[in-house]
Automatic annotation (TrEMBL):
Location of the ABC transporter domain: 8-242, 254-495
PROSITE patterns linked: ABC_TRANSPORTER_1, ABC_TRANSPORTER_2
Pfam families associated with the record: ABC_tran, BPD_transp_2
Annotated protein name in UniProt: ATP-binding cassette domain-containing protein
GO molecular function: ATP binding; ATP hydrolysis activity; transmembrane transporter activity
Taxonomy, superkingdom: Bacteria
PANTHER family: CARBOHYDRATE TRANSPORT ATP-BINDING PROTEIN MG119-RELATED, GALACTOFURANOSE TRANSPORTER ATP-BINDING PROTEIN YTFR
Species per Swiss-Prot/TrEMBL record: Trinickia violacea
Keywords (A to Z) from UniProt: ATP-binding, Cell inner membrane, Cell membrane, Membrane, Nucleotide-binding, Repeat, Sugar transport, Transmembrane, Transmembrane helix, Transport
Annotated membrane topology: Multi-pass membrane protein
InterPro entries: AAA+_ATPase (IPR003593), ABC_carbohydrate_import_ATPase (IPR050107), ABC_transp_permease (IPR001851), ABC_transporter-like_ATP-bd (IPR003439), ABC_transporter-like_CS (IPR017871), P-loop_NTPase (IPR027417)
Entry's localization field: Cell membrane
Amino acid sequence: MNQQHSLLQIDGVTKTFPGVRALDNVTFSVLAGEVHGLVGENGAGKSTLMAVASGALVAESGRVVIDGTQTQGDTEQARRLGLAIVRQEPALMPDLTVAENLYLGVPSEQRPSLMSTSEWAQQRLRQWSENVAIDANERVSSLTPEQRFIVEIVKALAAKPKVLVLDEPTEHLLAEDVERLFERIRGVTASGCSVVYISHRIREVQKIANRITVLRDGQGQGTYDAEGLSEQQIVELIVGGALDREFPAKAGNGSANTVLDVASLSGAGFTDVSVRIKKGEIVGLAGIDGNGQREFMSALAGLIRSRGTVSVNGNPVNLRDSQAAAASGIRLLPGDRHRAGIFGELSVRENFSIRSLPFDSLKGWINQRGETRRAREAVTDFAVKTPSVETPIRSLSGGNQQKVVLASVLASQPKVLLVDEPTQGVDIGARMEIYKVLRQAAAAGTAVIVVSSDALEVAGLCDRVLIFSRGHIVKELRDGAVSENNITSAVLTATTERVRGTASIPAFWKWASGDWAPLAMLALAICALGLYAAHMNEAYLSARNLSGMLALVATLAIVSYGQQALMLVGGIDLSVGPLMGLMVVIQSFFLNDGSALSHQLTGWAIACLVAIAVGLVNWVLVCPFRLHPMVATLATYMALQAISLILRPVPGGIIADSLLDTIGTQIGFVPVIAIGAAGLALVLEFALFKTRTGLVFRGVGSRLEAARMAGVRTQLTLLAAYVGCSLLAAVAAVPMMAQVGSGDPNAGINYTLASIAAVVIGGASLFGGRGSFVGSLLGALLIIQVNVVTSFLDIGDSWQSYLLGGMILVSVALYSKSREMAVAK
């Protein structure tokens, strides 16, 4: 080691959760230039300890010192002091590009210009591997689990940390990338960096670590030199005694009964695969990733299209979708548990029973007592560490979440069980239990297929192993030939090339999921509708009609910009319409003919302060009080409308003509306010995609927790969005004032739904993270155009609702489908 001083010192840390003492007076020290292994069972406190170190959690007692400075439980402070952490579930924002995630993931002083972010990010990726198959401009949502983990590691390395924490870093990596990771670890420690290496893979820890600290049930069990401990000794320290590490007995000759019969199955990534699995046996699929084994498994689960013949217990199976496969008795235990296995907001009980509800229901009614009993039995059988079965599953450790998913899949009593990485993130003690459970399932008549990146696991668990290469089965290992060495040798000699790249996405859907597609489709719709209207009625293109239409567009567009800003961060504001009406009502008392300038300025000041106050109230209700945005802003909607009606029970207070003329100023037939609205859209669009503020807005909406971990001040961002939305609604009330001419309390009501419609039609995601201000402008233009066209064509006001509703449905369906198709499976 280069130096002997401590870069990370944790003294006497205690952390409790409801019903659980996660850490109990834990002390942990990492020296400069060393790799320090941190091992223990699921729920032992490893990830919690590192969350305390990173500031993500605040301990009840104890202290954390990074490079000589005591921290105050602040993630941004820990980042500034040089701590970077790679979590089990990558803390990435899926709607941002790889480059944008890397940009936000490094300290501000290390960030390049936003204009050169893509090139900078691609250089960071090439430092991982010269032939890395990750495009810096690709959205994270389109990456495979392995690629996302590589991005997470590259992000941590790009921060040039003093202390690098790696939490289960190899679970999604292939052998070649594990070696790359070890090379990077050796490189950073040679420069004096400390590395904390958390893993359930004991042999990896022994290979890379200098010292090892063991945690058990939240308590430290000592720190040891890695060279002085055998694998068995480490295991015994982890579990607190000797552990039987033998794999369960294999099936031998087994039964002659065939459970699963696959004949000439082909699909994306694999061709002409045939396999039979008999009762009592487990079949493993091995090969370099990308050679078809996982695609074959996905086809059997009905997740991707395939052609060929499949039967279960002699009955033909239709694999048209996952529901059909499940109805036939085929169930998948997914490899990416975080995204495809758990329902984060549901309880452990609900996550367990959701795949086997018929066992607890009668004519659609759930017997909660029976459901709870089965869930408790599963928690006991699988040694799931949870305060109760009613605990939200998202609060459990990764390994415990995975055990619940496995228990849930097995509880459905599948005829065919497809297992992707059966012990990924699971501790050593639980692994042996999982192996026994899988063997018991096979013996009971379930056909079991296993895909695992661990050759030893495949060899110890499986009766037969099928080697995949370039989408074909090229070799089969049976009986005594099933060994770790033979599997590795067969995999390496079967092919020397690895199929790289992201999941295959059709060109149209990839384009449709991008930022430009909504703009192009809206522009096409606007032009087509305009040409049709002009063909049917020449007056449509008259200067008078276009001038009036553009004035209405400006009003709707400006309030839509506020709605868009808020929806980018995952919010929504139903109060914008009544707020616009209140603005006009307030000004109707101050902007009359003959009013002194000071009186008018007072009106403008009051309106501005009221708008800011409304934004603050909405933020307080949503953030500190944690009300749903729709509930909070609906309450504000009613309050503002009530105030407007109190001030002006009936329309009154004529606005000065001179002011109305100024607001309605035109250049030719184009209102100046429309030019301003278009210019504002361009400015906001530039800010959204070319400034850090815009990047932060998109990041918060894409994934709030990941943005917080990246050092973004999420509450301040949400405050800015709510206040900004209200201020833009107040600005939109100015051109509306020219349209109504007096204090009408109902003037803005229709703008609430219209502003949301314009944003949605413009391509925004209802869940945050995606959107466009130019898209909002075009959406507003299309809505106003539809309203005007129906009047010109004299087809009835009802058609305004039909067409608007149809446009919203088509837009949501198209954008949702395209973004679903562009997500890596």
